[in-house]
Amino acid sequence: MPSLIFRKGLEMKGAVAGILAESYHSTLIEQLKANDFVYTSGRLTVHLAREFGFCYGVDRAVDYAYQARSRFPDRRVFLTGEIIHNPHVNEKLRGMDVRFLSDPGETVDTLTPADVVILPAFGVTVQMLQQFDAVGCTLVDTTCGSVLNVWKNVKRYAAQGYTSVIHGKVWHEETQATASQAVASGGAYLVVYNDCEAGDVCDFIRRGGDSAAFLAQFGKAASDGFDPDLHLQRIGLANQTTMLMTESMAIGEMLKAAMTDRWGIADLAAHYTAFDTICSATQDRQDAVVSLLQEQQVDLMVVIGGYNSSNTANLARICAASKPTFHISDPDCLLSRDEIRHRPIGAKGEVVTTNWLPLSGPVTIGLTSGASTPDNLVGAAIATLDAFCN
Ligand code: SF4
Questions:
Q1: What residues does 38 pair with on adjacent strands?
Q2: How many beta carbons lie within 10 A of that of residue 280, not counting itself?
Q3: Which string of DSSP letters, residue by residue, matches 9-62?
Q4: CA 279 / ligand 1 centre spacing (Å)
């Protein structure tokens, strides 16, 4: 039986506005924005990027999750997994008795038609959606419009016989959902993580090669039955919406050049197509941090956001290219004026670094946060920095 699906809110916006503001708003951040994104106190100056924090997709997803809890107080409410990649927000929802299907002991098999399931901003796979439809539970679909735009394009690629080459992380929910859309539409896909992997794909496009070796490298990142000799003849580029824009553009240029070499410029359109699928919120945050780095003389950068947040990790990469950068998941990572717990760029886990903060004289810190980080965490981080410096 088809599920009841809420896609445009649950008519409870007013009812949850107060709790959302109380949970995620920051008066300090509002003051800072009004002060041209600068905070000064004693020897500390903080420059906040002009675009930071919750994006429109995350804002909507969190709003709908609270609305769902409020609208169905007597029903079991589930998330498929993390609603967004921020531990603070996910814990708040757990505290409201929103359950996570990704938790041990929870499975789709135990769902009943009376249950409510919230789909996250980055979407779910076609297979998962079919499972929910089969149960007949109520769905609250918060899939972001920017993700839906990517899906629309990969479906078009499939219909026109192009393989979707997705610049993304094969383990990320959004990329898995996008790949499933390509397959459900009768197409093939290949996920490339970075320019190094894209270079290997380009080599195969130009010169062909050992299909078995190619599949040994990319098999887990390609659709079932992927045949590089066949499926790389006609490709369309797509992106996970939160990737580094400059890297996505570079990969697009690499693939285009390889296809031009292989098929000739006159036939390029028949073999290669692309469209820009980095979402505007991701791009705005990346542009803002680049501007901050260019315009302000900061001693160090602090980037706040979940370690599994793709867009946050990419903001940290941009900062680390020119400044000492500390990617922290939470203000609690600011342990003391001597110690900070953070995840270095590209590392799998956290480390504690000492002597991270100049202990005397003026100190200028640049700050930004990922699209899944609420303002109250950024405000708390600034208050802690102030306490450490003054
Ligand atoms: S990062 Fe972009 S695609 Fe992802 S939820 Fe936010 S606005 Fe939507």
A1: 47
A2: 14
A3: --S-HHHHHHHHHHHH--HHHHHHHHTTTEEEETTEEEEE-SS-S--HHHHHHH
A4: 6
The answer on 347 and 321 residing in a single domain is yes
- Domain's final residue, options 278, 296, 329: 278
Q: Which domain holds residue 167?
A: 146-278
This prediction's pTM: 0.91
Residue 366 belongs to domain with CATH number: 3.40.1010.20
The 10s digit of each residue's pLDDT in 330-351 is 999 999 999 999 999 999 999 9
Ligand 1 close to Cβ of residue 56 (< 6 A):
yes
Nearest CA to ligand 1 atom 7: 57
Is 174 catalytic? The answer is yes
Please state the rounded mean pLDDT for residues 81-93: 89
- 197/225 same-domain check: yes
Q: What is the DSSP string of 356-382?
A: -S--SS-EEEEEEE-TT--HHHHHHHH
pLDDT the model gives residue 1: 59
Joined together, the tokens standing for residue 5 give 């699906």
Atom number, ligand 1, closest to the C-alpha of residue 311: 1
